[in-house]
Design brief:
Blueprint lengths: L4 H29 L11 E10 L2 E5 L6 H8 L3 E8 L6 E6 L2 E6 L1 E4 L3 H4 L4 E3 L11 E5 H8 L8 E4 L2 E9 L12 E4 L5 H7 L9 E7 L5 H23 L1 E9 H7 L12 H28 L1 H13 L4 H38 L11 H26 L4 H5 L7 H37 L9 E5 L3 H5 L1 H8 L5 E7 L10 E6 L8 E7 L4 H5 L3 E4 L7 H4 L3 E5 H7 L3 H4 L3 E6 L2 E11 L14 E4 L8 E6 L4 H15 L8 E2 H6 L3 H35 L1 H9 L4 H35 L10 H27 L3 H5 L3
Parallel strand pairs: 6-11, 8-10, 17-22, 19-21
Antiparallel strand pairs: 1-2, 1-12, 1-13, 3-6, 3-12, 4-5, 4-9, 7-10, 8-11, 9-10, 14-23, 14-24, 15-23, 16-17, 16-20, 18-21, 19-22, 20-21
Helix pairs in contact: 1-8, 1-10, 1-11, 1-22, 8-11, 8-13, 8-22, 10-11, 13-22, 13-24, 13-25, 15-20, 22-25, 24-25
Length: about 800
Amino acid sequence: MLKNKVYSFINILGLAIGITCCILIVLYIQDERSYDKHHADAASIYRVATQLNAGGNQSTMATSPGPLAFALKAEYPEIVQATRLVNPPGKQQQVVVFQNNTYFETDGLLTDSTFFSIFNYKFIVGNPGQALREPNTVVISQSMAKRIFREANPLNAVLTIGENDYKVTGVFAQPTNNSHIRANFFTSVYSKGLGEYVTSTRDFIGGNFIYSYIKLRPDADAKSLEAKLPAFLQKYAGDRMKEAGITKSHFLQCVPDIHLYSAIEHEANANGGITYLYMLSSIAIFILLIACVNFMNLSTARSGKRAKEVGMRKILGAYRSTLIRQFLGESIILSGMAIVVALGLTLLCLSVFNELTGKQLSLLNGLSLFTISCLVGITLFTGLLAGSYPAFYLSAFQPIKVLKGIMVTHIAANFLRKGLVVFQFVISVCLMAGTITILSQLDYIQNKNLGFDKEQRIIIPLRTRQAQETYLRFRNEISTQSNVLSVAATSSYPGAFYAYDTNFIPEGKRPDEATNCKINIVEPGLIETMAYQVLAGRTFSAGRYQADKDQSVLINEAAAQQIGWKPEEAIGKTLKGEWAGKQWNLQIVGVLKNFNYESLHETVRPMVFITQEPQWFEYAVINAKTGNWQNLLQEVEQSWQKYNASLPFEYVFLKDEVQTQYEADRRLSKTIGYLTAIAIFISCLGLYGLAAFTAEQRTKEIGVRKVLGASVTSITTMLSTDFLKLVLLGNLIAWPLAYYGMNKWLENFAYSIDLNVRIFVIAGLAAVSVALFTVSFQSIKAALANPIRSLRNE
C-alpha cells in the first residue's frame, strides 16, 4: 500500500464510496420493510380492499363499505376481530378548541372501540379496550396532549373538534414504529355526524370510503377466506348490484405488505413501492460493482509488478492455493479498511440522504442483526469479488518464465480489463440517461397546460360550520379589493382529494350503462375563477343560482366521451342518480374541456359539477392579480378575522398544491442524480488509475516519439483514443438498455414526454467528456515529460 499510494487510495476510496451507497440503501430498505410488523400477530391482520366496475370505470380501492367488516366477522368464525377506520373526506386538518384556544390538528381518524385490540398502541393514560366504547370520546397522541394541555392531566377533559364536543378517554405514546396508518387522534365512530352514517348504513355497494380490517385466527388461511368473499357479496348485495348495473369484488391485503406492495386508489397515506426498492438496490449494487471493477482492473494491470514475487514464492514451495488465499486476504483487508472509511462517509451523508428520502434514518439506531449481517456480507462480498480474478490470474504465473523476465500478455486479461471498463460506462450512461429523462418529465409536468390556470390562485380552507356560514359575507368583502379579480367556493380543487362520486344513468341508457362520475360541488363563478374552458353550453351563473341548484349540471369532456355524446349533443340531456340520500334528475347545461384534477400519473376521469348550499363548500378560491402578496394576504386575513375571530387564517397557493403530487418523482430524480454522479466519479477514478498506469508503461515509447518529433497533441490523442473507444462502446450498449428502462418508468404516467435520441446523445456526450477530461490529464502530463529523463537508462 505504501509503495503504491495512488493505486491504494483509488482502490480504498472507490470501494468505500460503493460500500457507503450500499449501507445507506440497506438502512433505507430496513426502514421500508419494518412497516406494521410491530403489531402482535401482524401476519394475521388483513385489510379488505375493493374492486369495482361501475359505468365502464374499473377502480381498485383500499376502502370498502361501512357494514362489511363486522358482517364478515359475523359470517366467518376464522375472523376473531374486526374494526373500521375512517379518514373524514376533505379534513386533512381539523380545528380543535380547548378553553377558547384554537389548534389545527392533522391526521384525525374515526374508528371502532375494537381498533386497539387489533393494532398495538402503548397507552400512557386510559384503557385501550374501553377508551372508544362511548359516543363522542377521543384518544389523543402524547404530542397533541402536550401541545394542548401542557403538563395538566388530559383525562376526561372536553375538546371541541369541528362542531362536536369529545371527552378525552386516553393518551397514547407517540409511535416510534412505522405504520401505513398515521394518526394524531382517534374519535369514536359512534359519535354524531359522519360516524352516524358509518354505523347506520347497510349499503354493501356504495359508501366505499371506509378502511375495513380483520384479524384471523393464527391457523386460518387467508386464501381460503378470500375465495368465500364472492358468495358473501352475492348474499348481501347480489340483487342490488344487478339493479345498479355494477360488478364488485373484495380481496384481502396482509397489513405488513401494504406499504411496499399496495398502490391502489384511496390509500390511507402515500406508500412506498417494492419496485423503487429494487431500483435503488440495483443501482447501489452496480456502483459497488464499478468499485470492484476498478480494483480488478488495477490489480491485473499492475500484475507485472508482482510477477517476480509470485515466481519466488512458488520456487520456495508456495502452492497456488496458498497464493490465492494470500491475494484474497489482501483484498478482504482492503475491503475492511474501505468499510471503516465507508462508515465515516455514511455518517457524513446521512443528513443529505434523509432529506432526499424524507426519512429520519440513523446508523446507530439502524444497527440491527440485519444491518450488521449486511455489513459483514458487503465486506466479504466486496473483498472476494474484487480480489477473485487478480488472485487466480496472478497465482497462475509460470515461475521460470517470470524469473527469466518473460512476461506473456494474456489476451484474456486485456479483453477482460477492457470489458470491465465498458461495463462501468454502460452503467454510468444508463444512469445519466435516466436522470435526464426524469428531469425532462418533471419539466413537462411543470409546464404542461393542465386545463386550468394554477398561477395567482389562493386556496383558503373553510374548516368549520361557522366559516361556511359566514363565507358569503367574507367573499363579498374581499371581492371589493382591487387586487382580487374573483372569489368562488368549491368542495375540492385540482391537487386535492375529490371525495364524492356516484353512478349517473344518462338519458336513453339502461341502469347497467350508468357512468361513474366524481362530483364537484361548486359555487357559480368557480368555473371562471379557475379558468376552466367551456366546450359547449354555459356555466352556472349567480342570476340562475336557485334554478340551477338541484336541477342543472355541468359535465367534463371525459364524461361525455364515456357516455358516447359529442359536447354539443350533451346539452339538454339528463342524468339520473342517487347521492347524499336523495334522487337526482339533472339537466346538462354545459360541457367543460378536460382538465387534470389528479396528477399526470392518472387519466382524466368523468366528473360532474353541481351547485349546493354553502355548507357543502370546503374551500374558497381567490383569483388575484398582484405582485405584492404580503399586502393582499394581510387584507384578506383582516376580513377573515372579522367573520371568524376564533379560527386562525390559513392559505395555500394552488401552484404549490399541484406540485406536491410529484414529490416522490422529485425525490427519485434527486436520488438517481446523486447516485449517477457517484457512479461516474468511481468510474473516472478507475480510468484515471488505468491511464496513469498506461502512461507509466509507455514512458520510453513516449520519449522516443518526442525525440522523433511527435507533438504533445498527437501523443495525448494516442494515449486517449484507446480509452475513448471503450467509452463509446459503452454508450452503444447503454442506449437501448436505458431506453427500455425509462420507457417502463414513463408508463406510470398517463401523460408523458416522448423519448428521443437527444436524451441519449446528451448522456453519451457527457460520459465521453468526463472520460476524456480524466484520461487527458494523465496523457498530457506524460506527453509534457522530459524525454531525456525517460530515455537516460537506455
